[in-house]
Amino acid sequence: MRTMTARGWVVAGLMACASAAVWAQAGARAVSVDPLVIGEVVARDRCAVCHGPCGQSVAPNYPRLAGQNAQYLFNQLQAFARGERLDTAMQEKVKGLSATELEAVAEYYARQKPGNTPSGDELLLAVGRYIYERGNRHSGLPPCATCHGAQAQGSAELPRLAGQHPAYIQRQVMAFRDRNGPRDSPVMRVMAHRLSDLELEAVAAYLGNLK
Question: What is the pTM of this model?
Answer without folding.
Answer: 0.82
